[in-house]
Write a structure and sequence with these properties.
The protein is an alpha+beta fold. It has three helices and three strands; from the N terminus they run αββααβ. Strand 1 and strand 2 form a beta hairpin.
């Protein structure tokens, strides 16, 4: 991969990771007891963004359960059409943390 192509792939990965996080947050039911806690999820995706599996790797069990439910509720997450970006995102470990205003 040339440097320009690599930079484009990296920026697409960041963009889609952010879009995936936003989509999860839209479906996530959180409460104040989760404040300051987090969970690391392993999410496997199909090329169209369909959620194939999601499991908690570590973190607060309450946060992990609710975040896992949010991913399953979303069913399909944003996914790039670029095969090199998909290759990096088809199995991601995502740290999720509830946000409170």
């Amino acid at each position: 991969l040339n440097k320009a192509r690599q930079a484009k792939v990296m920026s697409e990965i960041q963009k889609y990771t952010s879009l995936i996080s936003s989509e999860i947050k839209r479906h996530w039911i959180t409460d104040q007891s989760m404040k300051g806690k987090q969970c690391i999820l392993n999410i496997r995706l199909a090329s169209n963004g369909l959620v194939l599996s999601v499991k908690a790797l570590s973190g607060n069990p309450v946060v992990c359960n609710s975040a896992r439910t949010a991913v399953l509720k979303a069913e399909q997450l944003p996914m790039s059409k670029d095969p090199q970006v998909f290759a990096k995102l088809k199995e991601i470990n995502l740290t999720v943390q509830p946000e409170f205003d």
